[in-house]
Amino acid sequence: MTGLVILGVALVAALAFGLYRQRVDGRFSPTMREVDLAPTPTAEDPADRAADLAVWDAIASAVPGAALGERATFVQFSSAFCAPCRTTRVLLDDVATRTDGVAHVEIDAEEHLSLVRELDIRRTPTTLILDGIGNELTRAAGAPRREQVLAALPSSSQETT
Amino acid sequence: MTDTAVNRPAVTGIDPRGPRFTASVTLAIFVLALLLSGPSPEAAAVLTGVQALFFAVGAGLGVQWTPTGLLFRSVIRPRLTPPADLEDPTPPRFAQAVGLVFAVVATIGFATGAVVLGQVFAGFAVVAAFLNAVFAFCLGCEMYLLGLRLTRRTA
Protein backbone atom coordinates (compact mmCIF):
# COMPACT_ATOMS: atom_id res chain seq x y z
CA MET A 1 0.00 0.00 0.00
CA THR A 2 2.80 2.42 0.91
CA GLY A 3 4.43 1.56 -2.39
CA LEU A 4 1.28 2.52 -4.26
CA VAL A 5 1.01 5.84 -2.42
CA ILE A 6 4.68 6.68 -3.08
CA LEU A 7 4.24 5.75 -6.73
CA GLY A 8 1.21 8.04 -7.02
CA VAL A 9 2.93 10.94 -5.31
CA ALA A 10 6.05 10.49 -7.44
CA LEU A 11 4.12 10.45 -10.72
CA VAL A 12 1.98 13.48 -9.83
CA ALA A 13 5.04 15.42 -8.61
CA ALA A 14 7.02 14.58 -11.74
CA LEU A 15 4.15 15.56 -14.03
CA ALA A 16 3.58 18.86 -12.22
CA PHE A 17 7.28 19.72 -12.17
CA GLY A 18 7.70 18.77 -15.82
CA LEU A 19 4.77 20.91 -16.94
CA TYR A 20 5.95 23.84 -14.83
CA ARG A 21 9.45 23.61 -16.27
CA GLN A 22 8.15 23.34 -19.80
CA ARG A 23 6.29 26.61 -19.23
CA VAL A 24 9.12 28.66 -17.69
CA ASP A 25 12.10 27.21 -19.57
CA GLY A 26 13.81 29.74 -21.80
CA ARG A 27 11.53 32.58 -20.74
CA PHE A 28 13.35 35.89 -20.36
CA SER A 29 12.36 37.84 -17.30
CA PRO A 30 13.68 41.20 -16.10
CA THR A 31 16.78 40.73 -14.03
CA MET A 32 16.40 40.63 -10.27
CA ARG A 33 19.22 43.16 -9.95
CA GLU A 34 17.11 45.82 -11.61
CA VAL A 35 15.25 47.40 -8.72
CA ASP A 36 13.32 49.73 -10.98
CA LEU A 37 11.81 47.30 -13.48
CA ALA A 38 12.01 49.60 -16.50
CA PRO A 39 15.45 49.14 -18.06
CA THR A 40 17.25 52.45 -17.73
CA PRO A 41 20.61 52.25 -19.48
CA THR A 42 21.41 55.83 -18.51
CA ALA A 43 20.49 55.48 -14.86
CA GLU A 44 21.62 58.52 -12.96
CA ASP A 45 21.67 56.87 -9.58
CA PRO A 46 25.38 56.15 -9.14
CA ALA A 47 24.68 53.12 -6.94
CA ASP A 48 22.41 51.58 -9.59
CA ARG A 49 24.91 52.23 -12.28
CA ALA A 50 27.72 50.73 -10.29
CA ALA A 51 25.69 47.59 -9.63
CA ASP A 52 24.89 47.24 -13.34
CA LEU A 53 28.40 47.76 -14.54
CA ALA A 54 29.63 45.30 -11.96
CA VAL A 55 27.94 42.52 -13.96
CA TRP A 56 30.12 43.08 -16.99
CA ASP A 57 33.20 43.82 -14.86
CA ALA A 58 32.82 40.48 -13.12
CA ILE A 59 32.37 38.66 -16.43
CA ALA A 60 35.25 40.46 -18.12
CA SER A 61 37.65 39.75 -15.28
CA ALA A 62 36.65 36.07 -15.19
CA VAL A 63 36.81 35.68 -18.98
CA PRO A 64 39.56 38.00 -20.23
CA GLY A 65 38.94 37.30 -23.93
CA ALA A 66 35.27 38.25 -23.82
CA ALA A 67 34.17 41.32 -25.77
CA LEU A 68 30.96 43.29 -25.44
CA GLY A 69 28.71 43.60 -28.50
CA GLU A 70 27.78 47.12 -29.61
CA ARG A 71 24.08 46.56 -29.17
CA ALA A 72 23.79 43.47 -27.02
CA THR A 73 25.73 40.53 -25.67
CA PHE A 74 24.46 37.04 -24.89
CA VAL A 75 26.28 35.60 -21.90
CA GLN A 76 25.56 31.87 -21.80
CA PHE A 77 26.54 29.72 -18.84
CA SER A 78 27.09 26.07 -19.78
CA SER A 79 28.36 22.91 -18.16
CA ALA A 80 29.50 19.49 -19.34
CA PHE A 81 26.44 17.63 -18.06
CA CYS A 82 23.94 19.73 -19.93
CA ALA A 83 22.16 18.53 -23.03
CA PRO A 84 20.23 21.75 -23.85
CA CYS A 85 23.44 23.84 -23.66
CA ARG A 86 24.43 22.63 -27.11
CA THR A 87 21.13 23.63 -28.69
CA THR A 88 21.29 27.00 -26.96
CA ARG A 89 24.85 27.60 -28.18
CA VAL A 90 23.88 26.88 -31.79
CA LEU A 91 20.86 29.18 -31.57
CA LEU A 92 22.65 32.10 -29.89
CA ASP A 93 25.62 31.77 -32.26
CA ASP A 94 23.25 31.95 -35.17
CA VAL A 95 21.38 34.99 -33.86
CA ALA A 96 24.67 36.74 -33.01
CA THR A 97 25.99 36.07 -36.52
CA ARG A 98 22.86 37.32 -38.25
CA THR A 99 22.36 40.42 -36.10
CA ASP A 100 24.68 43.41 -36.27
CA GLY A 101 26.40 44.37 -33.06
CA VAL A 102 25.35 41.29 -31.10
CA ALA A 103 27.99 39.13 -29.44
CA HIS A 104 27.79 35.70 -27.84
CA VAL A 105 30.01 34.74 -24.91
CA GLU A 106 29.83 31.20 -23.54
CA ILE A 107 31.17 30.56 -20.05
CA ASP A 108 31.90 27.20 -18.47
CA ALA A 109 30.04 27.39 -15.16
CA GLU A 110 32.24 24.73 -13.53
CA GLU A 111 35.40 26.70 -14.18
CA HIS A 112 33.95 29.99 -12.96
CA LEU A 113 32.10 29.05 -9.79
CA SER A 114 32.74 32.35 -8.02
CA LEU A 115 31.24 34.20 -10.99
CA VAL A 116 28.33 31.73 -10.92
CA ARG A 117 27.72 32.57 -7.27
CA GLU A 118 28.14 36.29 -7.83
CA LEU A 119 25.61 36.39 -10.65
CA ASP A 120 23.41 33.80 -8.94
CA ILE A 121 23.39 31.28 -11.80
CA ARG A 122 21.48 28.18 -10.69
CA ARG A 123 21.07 26.09 -13.82
CA THR A 124 22.71 25.55 -17.14
CA PRO A 125 22.04 26.87 -19.64
CA THR A 126 21.32 30.31 -18.21
CA THR A 127 21.49 33.15 -20.72
CA LEU A 128 21.98 36.79 -19.71
CA ILE A 129 21.32 39.54 -22.23
CA LEU A 130 23.46 42.62 -21.67
CA ASP A 131 23.03 45.96 -23.40
CA GLY A 132 25.78 47.87 -25.20
CA ILE A 133 27.46 49.08 -22.03
CA GLY A 134 27.14 45.85 -20.10
CA ASN A 135 23.95 46.32 -18.09
CA GLU A 136 22.10 43.11 -17.51
CA LEU A 137 18.70 43.58 -19.16
CA THR A 138 17.19 40.17 -18.72
CA ARG A 139 18.01 36.51 -18.18
CA ALA A 140 16.50 33.12 -18.98
CA ALA A 141 17.17 29.73 -17.43
CA GLY A 142 16.75 26.75 -19.72
CA ALA A 143 17.00 26.60 -23.51
CA PRO A 144 15.20 29.58 -25.10
CA ARG A 145 13.45 29.42 -28.46
CA ARG A 146 14.50 31.69 -31.31
CA GLU A 147 11.48 33.97 -31.04
CA GLN A 148 12.05 34.36 -27.31
CA VAL A 149 15.64 35.44 -27.93
CA LEU A 150 14.69 37.90 -30.68
CA ALA A 151 11.89 39.41 -28.60
CA ALA A 152 14.25 39.92 -25.66
CA LEU A 153 16.92 41.73 -27.69
CA PRO A 154 17.08 45.52 -27.24
CA SER A 155 14.64 46.98 -29.78
CA SER A 156 17.23 48.86 -31.85
CA SER A 157 18.58 45.64 -33.34
CA GLN A 158 17.38 44.20 -36.62
CA GLU A 159 18.02 40.78 -38.05
CA THR A 160 19.88 41.34 -41.28
CA THR A 161 18.75 38.35 -43.32
CA MET B 1 33.06 35.56 -31.11
CA THR B 2 32.03 32.50 -29.23
CA ASP B 3 33.47 29.78 -27.06
CA THR B 4 35.81 32.10 -25.28
CA ALA B 5 35.90 29.91 -22.25
CA VAL B 6 34.53 26.54 -23.27
CA ASN B 7 36.77 24.03 -24.91
CA ARG B 8 35.19 20.63 -25.09
CA PRO B 9 36.70 17.66 -26.85
CA ALA B 10 34.73 16.79 -29.95
CA VAL B 11 32.54 13.80 -29.20
CA THR B 12 30.45 11.69 -31.48
CA GLY B 13 26.84 12.49 -30.83
CA ILE B 14 24.19 9.92 -30.05
CA ASP B 15 20.54 9.83 -31.06
CA PRO B 16 18.71 11.71 -28.25
CA ARG B 17 15.82 9.24 -28.50
CA GLY B 18 18.09 6.44 -27.24
CA PRO B 19 18.44 7.76 -23.66
CA ARG B 20 14.72 8.55 -23.62
CA PHE B 21 13.89 4.98 -24.59
CA THR B 22 16.24 3.76 -21.87
CA ALA B 23 14.53 6.10 -19.38
CA SER B 24 11.14 4.67 -20.37
CA VAL B 25 12.31 1.14 -19.58
CA THR B 26 13.88 2.38 -16.34
CA LEU B 27 10.57 4.02 -15.41
CA ALA B 28 8.68 0.77 -16.08
CA ILE B 29 11.11 -1.22 -13.93
CA PHE B 30 10.83 1.15 -10.95
CA VAL B 31 7.02 1.36 -11.26
CA LEU B 32 6.85 -2.44 -11.25
CA ALA B 33 9.25 -2.59 -8.28
CA LEU B 34 7.03 -0.20 -6.30
CA LEU B 35 3.90 -2.18 -7.15
CA LEU B 36 5.56 -5.44 -6.04
CA SER B 37 7.29 -3.97 -2.99
CA GLY B 38 4.30 -4.51 -0.69
CA PRO B 39 3.52 -8.15 -1.41
CA SER B 40 7.09 -9.17 -2.25
CA PRO B 41 10.04 -6.93 -1.30
CA GLU B 42 12.33 -9.70 -2.60
CA ALA B 43 10.95 -9.38 -6.13
CA ALA B 44 11.33 -5.60 -5.88
CA ALA B 45 14.95 -6.05 -4.78
CA VAL B 46 15.64 -8.25 -7.82
CA LEU B 47 14.14 -5.65 -10.16
CA THR B 48 16.00 -2.67 -8.71
CA GLY B 49 19.16 -4.82 -8.52
CA VAL B 50 18.96 -5.57 -12.23
CA GLN B 51 18.31 -1.88 -12.92
CA ALA B 52 21.38 -1.03 -10.81
CA LEU B 53 23.45 -3.28 -13.09
CA PHE B 54 22.05 -1.47 -16.14
CA PHE B 55 22.91 1.88 -14.55
CA ALA B 56 26.43 0.65 -13.75
CA VAL B 57 26.97 -0.22 -17.42
CA GLY B 58 25.54 3.15 -18.48
CA ALA B 59 27.72 5.07 -16.04
CA GLY B 60 30.85 3.06 -16.81
CA LEU B 61 30.65 2.77 -20.59
CA GLY B 62 27.98 5.24 -21.67
CA VAL B 63 24.21 5.05 -21.94
CA GLN B 64 24.44 3.71 -25.50
CA TRP B 65 25.98 0.45 -24.21
CA THR B 66 23.25 -0.51 -21.77
CA PRO B 67 21.01 -3.42 -22.85
CA THR B 68 18.26 -0.94 -23.68
CA GLY B 69 20.73 1.30 -25.52
CA LEU B 70 21.86 -1.65 -27.63
CA LEU B 71 18.26 -2.72 -28.23
CA PHE B 72 17.45 0.82 -29.35
CA ARG B 73 20.32 0.91 -31.81
CA SER B 74 19.85 -2.54 -33.28
CA VAL B 75 16.06 -2.85 -33.39
CA ILE B 76 14.30 0.48 -32.87
CA ARG B 77 16.47 3.13 -34.48
CA PRO B 78 16.61 1.46 -37.92
CA ARG B 79 12.80 1.75 -38.02
CA LEU B 80 12.78 5.47 -37.18
CA THR B 81 13.55 8.46 -39.36
CA PRO B 82 17.07 9.86 -38.77
CA PRO B 83 17.22 12.25 -35.80
CA ALA B 84 17.12 16.01 -36.37
CA ASP B 85 20.31 16.45 -34.38
CA LEU B 86 22.65 14.41 -32.23
CA GLU B 87 23.25 14.73 -28.52
CA ASP B 88 26.38 14.72 -26.39
CA PRO B 89 26.48 11.35 -24.55
CA THR B 90 28.12 12.88 -21.44
CA PRO B 91 24.98 14.27 -19.72
CA PRO B 92 22.96 11.03 -19.93
CA ARG B 93 26.00 9.08 -18.77
CA PHE B 94 26.25 11.29 -15.70
CA ALA B 95 22.53 10.78 -15.10
CA GLN B 96 23.11 7.00 -15.18
CA ALA B 97 25.62 7.39 -12.35
CA VAL B 98 23.10 9.36 -10.29
CA GLY B 99 20.49 6.69 -11.02
CA LEU B 100 22.93 4.01 -9.89
CA VAL B 101 23.11 5.54 -6.41
CA PHE B 102 19.32 5.54 -6.07
CA ALA B 103 18.96 2.01 -7.44
CA VAL B 104 21.61 0.66 -5.05
CA VAL B 105 19.98 2.26 -1.99
CA ALA B 106 16.54 1.01 -3.09
CA THR B 107 17.93 -2.50 -3.57
CA ILE B 108 19.58 -2.49 -0.15
CA GLY B 109 16.32 -1.31 1.40
CA PHE B 110 14.18 -3.99 -0.25
CA ALA B 111 16.72 -6.74 0.39
CA THR B 112 17.27 -5.97 4.09
CA GLY B 113 13.64 -5.41 5.05
CA ALA B 114 13.89 -1.60 5.21
CA VAL B 115 11.06 -1.61 2.68
CA VAL B 116 10.02 2.03 3.15
CA LEU B 117 13.60 3.17 2.49
CA GLY B 118 13.55 1.15 -0.73
CA GLN B 119 10.19 2.59 -1.69
CA VAL B 120 11.26 6.19 -1.09
CA PHE B 121 14.38 5.83 -3.22
CA ALA B 122 12.46 3.97 -5.91
CA GLY B 123 10.00 6.90 -5.78
CA PHE B 124 12.78 9.42 -6.43
CA ALA B 125 13.97 7.25 -9.30
CA VAL B 126 10.43 7.24 -10.74
CA VAL B 127 10.41 11.06 -10.68
CA ALA B 128 13.76 11.31 -12.46
CA ALA B 129 12.98 8.60 -15.03
CA PHE B 130 9.53 10.08 -15.73
CA LEU B 131 10.96 13.57 -16.33
CA ASN B 132 13.60 12.10 -18.63
CA ALA B 133 11.23 9.85 -20.58
CA VAL B 134 8.31 12.28 -20.92
CA PHE B 135 9.95 15.72 -20.93
CA ALA B 136 13.52 14.86 -22.03
CA PHE B 137 14.54 16.62 -18.83
CA CYS B 138 17.71 15.47 -17.06
CA LEU B 139 17.20 15.99 -13.32
CA GLY B 140 20.67 14.76 -12.33
CA CYS B 141 22.26 17.18 -14.80
CA GLU B 142 20.27 20.07 -13.31
CA MET B 143 21.37 19.24 -9.80
CA TYR B 144 25.01 19.12 -10.87
CA LEU B 145 25.69 22.86 -10.87
CA LEU B 146 23.76 23.41 -7.63
CA GLY B 147 25.78 20.60 -6.07
CA LEU B 148 29.04 22.23 -7.19
CA ARG B 149 27.93 25.60 -5.83
CA LEU B 150 27.15 24.09 -2.47
CA THR B 151 30.15 21.80 -2.10
CA ARG B 152 33.11 23.42 -3.80
CA ARG B 153 34.53 26.40 -1.99
CA THR B 154 36.64 28.11 -4.63
CA ALA B 155 36.20 28.35 -8.37
Describe this structure in words.
Chain A is α+β, with helices and mostly antiparallel strands and 161 residues long. Chain A has one domain: Glutaredoxin (3-Layer(aba) Sandwich). Chain A contains 5 helices and 5 strands, in the order H-E-H-E-H-E-H-E-E-H. A 5-stranded mixed beta sheet of chain A has the order 1-5-4-2-3. Residues 34-40 of chain A have low confidence and may be disordered. Chain B is mainly alpha-helical and 155 residues long. Chain B has one domain. Chain B is 70% helix and 0% strand. Chain B has 6 helices and no strands. Chain B is globular, with a radius of gyration of 17 Å. The two termini of chain B are 24 Å apart. The chains are: A alpha+beta (161), B mainly alpha (155). Chains A and B meet through helix 1, helix 3, strand 3 and helix 4 of A and helix 1, helix 4, helix 5 and helix 6 of B.
Short description:
The complex is a heterodimer of chains A (161) and B (155). With 161 residues, chain A is an alpha+beta fold.
Q: What is the terminal separation of chain B in angstroms? A: 24 Å
Mean pLDDT of chain A: 85
Q: Kindly state the mean pLDDT of chain B as a whole number?
A: 89
Low-pLDDT runs of 5+ residues of chain A are 34-40
Which percent range fits the helix content of chain B?
Answer: over 70%
The backbone outline of chain A, from C-alpha atoms, is elongated
- Rg on CA atoms of chain B, Å: 17 Å
